């Protein structure tokens, strides 16, 4: 099976000192890969570089064999990559419905929002509320729903559990796994919440100081006490 | 009483122009967080172009359309060639560049057309016709109301009913997120400047026949009135800027009618200072915290 996302020797950062050093990874179609690591390990920088918000200094990013290293950010979604940034990126001045429509504007004809409302009935109830009126969990659903409107092949998710109650985090994780099973969506999931990330991931990558220090099956990472102690601190 | 009614209608007519001009300022503020101090000079420049075409062809309306199209192009050009490259880390940078543009545009206009007033013809009679024995409105006033009303309606439809309007709003509020969703933020910015400059050109074409005529600095005082109107409206609110424009128009009309025309320009500045000191977020501000 050929990889969906291939990243080779990625070096990137802000200014002269790179944050990421020589990072290589692959994501297969329908695979959920968790990127783990402490604050400042370079997890968000990795996602920002993959989506072009930050330019790679070295290395190559390819989706289905097509080089996307120098692509414009606004064209990325057309290739099937959706990035839900940290802090969720809901446009708080726009309504729920406007946020969702925004996710599909580039498609002709514009996609129906009904499947998203079926997936998140709560968003349907609040469709005319503005983003700033939503709770943290609703915002996460909105950001996720908005990314799904574009029907991406790969979802880049940055800290979806941030600031959410454990119950809501569990719901969102379950939803991701369900989506993967039903639609073959691949997910690159950045998380501080190691347990909940590994509960749905197929594979875990541990970043430390901008380098990949280990990558294993999620089950191995959870079960192997030495690995857990060494890299995940629990 | 007749005088009060007359001054009210006169004020609303001037206020409508201020409203359009303030709306142009608000459009750019919302899109780029820059107060475009060059807007008056840009509007005059396009009015010169419009009247040149009108003189050459004998058709006011052709000149009118050319002025507005010139506004679209000039606005897009100023964003693409100048403003895009301004370092926005300090809000002052954009202001200084805009003031520099004013000097350049006014200098170039002086060289091309000379620094004397040139006549700016009105397409309709400015003689007021009588309603109930009082001279209230001229055909030209009606034209001003219709033109400004049309602009307000069209812009409202654009921003609330069209995909492009949604893109423009999203790009202004959350540029990075919008880009991730496939919105060309740079393109929306250019479009915002183009639209704003075109609305500014329209306001210029509407107000110049009621002033002394065409002159490189002809819009300076109008700019101050419109800026005051925009600040009154909170700078961020299209509806606020329209209400602010009408309010400033009325106030100036009463002041020049009852106290004398020479007091009016000072009164605008005084009003601007008072508003900035007491209600810097505008008269109609509702607090809405921006989170996340």
From TrEMBL, chain A:
<keyword id="KW-0029">Amino-acid transport</keyword>
<keyword id="KW-0067">ATP-binding</keyword>
<dbReference type="InterPro" id="IPR017871">
    <property type="entry name" value="ABC_transporter-like_CS"/>
</dbReference>
<keyword id="KW-0813">Transport</keyword>
<dbReference type="GO" id="GO:0005524">
    <property type="term" value="F:ATP binding"/>
</dbReference>
<dbReference type="InterPro" id="IPR003593">
    <property type="entry name" value="AAA+_ATPase"/>
</dbReference>
<keyword id="KW-0547">Nucleotide-binding</keyword>
<feature type="domain" description="ABC transporter">
    <location>
        <begin position="5"/>
        <end position="234"/>
    </location>
</feature>
<dbReference type="InterPro" id="IPR003439">
    <property type="entry name" value="ABC_transporter-like_ATP-bd"/>
</dbReference>
<comment type="similarity">
    <text>Belongs to the ABC transporter superfamily.</text>
</comment>
<dbReference type="InterPro" id="IPR052156">
    <property type="entry name" value="BCAA_Transport_ATP-bd_LivF"/>
</dbReference>
<dbReference type="InterPro" id="IPR027417">
    <property type="entry name" value="P-loop_NTPase"/>
</dbReference>
<protein>
    <submittedName>
        <fullName>ABC transporter ATP-binding protein</fullName>
    </submittedName>
</protein>
<dbReference type="Pfam" id="PF00005">
    <property type="entry name" value="ABC_tran"/>
</dbReference>
Automatic annotation (TrEMBL), chain B:
<feature type="transmembrane region" description="Helical">
    <location>
        <begin position="60"/>
        <end position="82"/>
    </location>
</feature>
<feature type="transmembrane region" description="Helical">
    <location>
        <begin position="180"/>
        <end position="208"/>
    </location>
</feature>
<keyword id="KW-0472">Membrane</keyword>
<dbReference type="InterPro" id="IPR052157">
    <property type="entry name" value="BCAA_transport_permease"/>
</dbReference>
<feature type="transmembrane region" description="Helical">
    <location>
        <begin position="142"/>
        <end position="159"/>
    </location>
</feature>
<dbReference type="Pfam" id="PF02653">
    <property type="entry name" value="BPD_transp_2"/>
</dbReference>
<keyword id="KW-1133">Transmembrane helix</keyword>
<feature type="transmembrane region" description="Helical">
    <location>
        <begin position="261"/>
        <end position="278"/>
    </location>
</feature>
<keyword id="KW-0029">Amino-acid transport</keyword>
<keyword id="KW-0812">Transmembrane</keyword>
<dbReference type="InterPro" id="IPR001851">
    <property type="entry name" value="ABC_transp_permease"/>
</dbReference>
<feature type="transmembrane region" description="Helical">
    <location>
        <begin position="94"/>
        <end position="114"/>
    </location>
</feature>
<keyword id="KW-0813">Transport</keyword>
<keyword id="KW-1003">Cell membrane</keyword>
<protein>
    <submittedName>
        <fullName>Branched-chain amino acid ABC transporter permease</fullName>
    </submittedName>
</protein>
<comment type="similarity">
    <text>Belongs to the binding-protein-dependent transport system permease family. LivHM subfamily.</text>
</comment>
<feature type="transmembrane region" description="Helical">
    <location>
        <begin position="12"/>
        <end position="29"/>
    </location>
</feature>
